[in-house]
Amino acid sequence: MKICFEALYNTNNDICDKVMRERGFSVQSYLRKTWIDLAKAYMEETKWVKRDRIPTLKHYIENGVTTSGTYMALMHLFFMVSDGVTSENSQHLLDRYPKFFTLAGTILRLWDDLGTIKEEQERGDMLSSIHLPMKEKNTACEEEGRKEILQMIYELWNDLNVELVTPDVMLFPMINVALNMSRASQVVYQHNDDSYLTGVENHVEYLFYKPIDI
């Protein structure tokens, strides 16, 4: 744990130093906030398990966007890829994350649940966005739960596309990052009955090792 913490701490400080050199202001408070939010979200999940509590689907997703690491990752990237970022126009980020952060994170969380449910069931982890609507509707049909989550993802993609076509100029590079994160999550977790790791291995093999017929 000390080794992991030191690596994260040093990487965080390296990013802060880079932004200070290039943009002239400190982003330490912004990045620190994302790590605090991440730790709090993990603790919330721990409370659910320890107290044998089942959250609502809404509460689970809201917390799950944070535990997916989306806010943390996108906040770090924000200060490195967005042009025109200043100390003044970044203040609102301490109060509320941008909408497209949340949209991308929700897509990632839902695809993660869809793609890893087999592995999670094998290790006894039954808390996922697929099972929660089943419990709320008192149904044992997992396929219905999957259909509901896929419909939610479809609607989230519509909202994310709206963000893309009507962007703030300064935010446009980051909206593209969020879009590509959502695409990647679908590629990684959308597969058949095989393990999602098998799907990732296949994609990597075709991208880097399989020759292309011309």
TrEMBL record:
Asked if the record carries the keyword Metal-binding, the reply is yes
InterPro entries, alphabetized:
Isoprenoid_synthase_dom_sf, Terpene_synthase-like, Terpene_synthase_metal-bd
Highest taxon of the source? Eukaryota
Which keywords does UniProt give here?
Magnesium, Metal-binding
The record ties this protein, via Pfam families, to:
Terpene_synth_C (PF03936)
Keyword set includes Metal-binding? yes
Which GO molecular function entries does the Swiss-Prot or TrEMBL record give? magnesium ion binding; terpene synthase activity
Q: Name one GO biological process term.
A: terpenoid biosynthetic process
User: Which SUPFAM superfamilies has this protein been placed in?
Assistant: Terpenoid synthases
Q: Which residues form the Terpene synthase metal-binding domain?
A: 1-159
- Name of this protein: Putative isoprenoid synthase domain-containing protein
- Species, as recorded: Helianthus annuus (Common sunflower)
